Amino acid sequence: MSEFQAYLQLGFDHITDSNGYDHILFIAALCTIYTLIDWKKVIILVTAFTIGHSITLALSTMGMISIRPDVIELLIPITILFTAILNFFHKTPKSSYIREKTYSPRYPLALTFGLVHGLGFSNYLRALLGKEADIVEPLLGFNIGLELGQLIIVFIILAIAFLAIEILRLSKLRWNDIISGIIVGMAISLIINNELFREILG
Fold first, then answer.
1. pTM of the entire predicted model
2. Higher model confidence: residue 3 or residue 102?
3. Helices 69-87 & 106-129 angle (0-180, nearest 10)
4. CA dist 74 to 31, 118, 119, 195, Å?
């Protein structure tokens, strides 16, 4: 296995690892209001998130920016919580085929929060790289691995949503409220159990 393939696998494993489910939760929070019918909107949304985390993943891994890991570990569940809460204010059309407005603040939000998650990815990648001189190939492989894993997660979430809404006839509003509520609860748990958060509270 080449170095590129090894880091591609590591990137894929990192984002799909159930033990580090914070990134999965964020992707779920982003996609909860959509189903497979909305795949074009989701592609734009995920692309915005990808651009964000790719920028900080590269800059941080190359040592151009540096933020304390414990700060990032607290900010990530905060981004999850904020995104999930935003879902409750989403106006769901009565029919899946009614067009919603083209612009949504979710796109710049996904880009901005992607910057935070990229710093989280970089902490893991830098630990793997150690003092390795050439980081271009590992960085590229790791990032592509992240994207492949992310696309699979998105597809699974949208497929489950489609099954629940279009086949089982669960309303979009109920689906959104249930899943977003679960994510909010899990995000709050991550925040409360965060060491830096406990230090701040004293």
1. 0.90
2. 3
3. 150
4. 22, 14, 12, 8
